Amino acid sequence: MSTEFEPKILAFVCNWCTYAGADLTGTSRIKYASNVKIVRFPCTGRIDFMLLLKAFANGSDGVIVSGCHPNDCHYTSGNFHARRRWMLFRGLLDFLGVDVRRIQFSWVSAAEGAKWAEVVNKTVADVRALGPYAEYKKAAKFLAGNEDVLLKAQEVAL
Ligand code: FES
After folding, report:
1. How far is the CA of 136 from the centre of ligand 1 (A)?
2. Is residue 77, in this structure, part of any structural domain at all?
3. In the prediction, which pLDDT does 137 show?
4. Among 64, 127, 130, 152, which is least packed, fewest CB within 10 Å?
5. Paired residues of 39 in beta bridges
6. How far is the centre of ligand 1, averaged over its atoms, from the C-alpha of 66 (Å)?
7. In this structure, is residue 151 part of a structural domain?
8. Is the CB–ligand 1 distance for residue 21 below 6 Å?
């Protein structure tokens, strides 16, 4: 029996591109790591800082955020909002002690089943090398006491 650490990865994906790309990965029978659980959003424009923190607080070792390529968003600019938020989140997450290498931000279209497999495999390998995310309890404690403040800070920053 193997005792190798198996990371738990949560993927926030948009319905129109990456979710369809992930589906194509399956229908094309491309093998990839089974460590990922997908949460489907209408658009990556929905992603916010609290969702990332809650993923870690609830036991994820890594997170993927993936949507349509620039200029392909079905809601015009949701992926640009997501990218802008990601630039802000990085600093906040770093401040909170979350290693940003645990978060993969990518664009995967509905035709890129092979790319989805690559993104998942790379994220799993990177997070496996980092080890389990033992700090998640710290994030959970922080969340419990500061959710309102964090949401207000995010609104102001955006
Ligand atoms: Fe895919 Fe907006 S619809 S990122």
Report:
1. 29
2. yes
3. 61
4. 152
5. 12
6. 9
7. no
8. no
pLDDT on residue 31: 95
43 occurs within a structural domain = yes
Distance of alpha carbon 79 from alpha carbon 73, whole angstroms: 6
pLDDT of residue 49: 79
Give pLDDT, residue 81. Answer: 92
Ligand 1 near 108 CB (within 6 A):
no
141, pLDDT greater than 70: no
Residues 6+ apart with CB under 8 A from 122: 104
Mean pLDDT, residues 22-42? 96
What domain range includes position 111?
Answer: 9-132
Q: Is residue 41 part of a domain?
A: yes
Number of domain units in the chain = 1
Give the number of C-alpha atoms closer than 13 A to the C-alpha of residue 115, restricted to the C-beta side.
17
Give the residue-averaged pLDDT of 74-93.
89
